[in-house]
Amino acid sequence: MAGATVKADYYEVLQVTRTATDQEIKTSYRKLAMQFHPDRNPGDKSAEEKFKECSEAYGILSDPQKRAAYDRYGHAGFGGAASQGGGFPGGFSGFGGDPQDLGDIFGDIFGEMFGGGGGGRRQSRAQRGRDLKYDLTMEFEESVFGKEQEIKIKRQETCEGCSGTGSANGKQPVTCSQCRGAGQVRYQQGFFSVARPCPKCEGSGVNVTDPCQTCHGESRVMREHTINVKVPAGVEDGTRIRYQGEGEAGKLGGPAGDLYVELRVKAHKFFQRDGDDLHCVVPVSFPQAALGDELEIETLEGVAVLKVPEGTQSGKSFRIKGKGVPHLNSHGKGDLIVEVRVQTPAKLTKKQKELLKELSETMKTDNAPQSHGFMDRMKEMFS
Length: 383
Fold this sequence. Notes:
By secondary structure, the chain is an alpha+beta fold. Helix content is 25%, strand content 25%. It contains nine helices and 15 strands. Strand 4 and strand 5 (192-197) form a beta hairpin.
């Protein structure tokens, strides 16, 4: 449609990856919101649009349900627009975070702008575990019919020696002396005050004085973990399957991250997929096309019989119902589209040449160029 604009990818807008944690998304949004906020860029329409775009993206990606829908359907999952209208600059009526989260972000933005606010809050000591990604390569047939497979991943798991506290002998960590438990320290940069994670406690707000001998105070240890991956029938290349809580363990009691299994489907030797339909090309001889024939066609589920009527032209396609790919998480299947192409023999025996010459003498073909009207009809057919 003329004049239509393509909405930017929300992950690109917030400058994060698709496996970014909630905290990484929140941190990136805070940074961008400060950079493009209208109060810091008076009269700058470009900055105002950027601020609106960032706010809309955060409104979707900060909400687990909306983010899951966006990961699966993209912008189409929200009717082409994630938020409408306003109240706040940037259309905050569509904001996906909870009110406390919204207040925290604006507290940071305006607090840092004017040298106060938000920085005195005490951060939660618990930290969410990192999300993990695993690429699973599979055969074309496996993507069509589904499969189960065990995979092994290496991940950080809660240390059993200290139950995730990082301290030996059940001793609890002590409040960090540098940030006094806030988890962040503030630095004055001219007119602005900037908050950063405390370097001594890495943002946790606590320090381990008597480290666990197993995890050396880290509260987690690296282990190999086996997961049974169930791939449903009908998946496509690039499909991502999310396993909630199967990522790395959180620190100091924080929730575990998620595992994303991304499917890589190998190409088939002669089938090509288009949605849930399969396409293939089958060569036929001139007599088969002219006189008609019954062909045995290989499908993914065995042999199917295709009736080619007499007088079939090269390039004609036939549809075999229900021999395509199963509809993902639904009933029914796509179809198999078979295109027949008349094959001209490169070498003929003397007898074959004589027979073809005899046939050609009985057939008269007008080899004159086709009319302009004919070419127009051909263009309409393929436009």
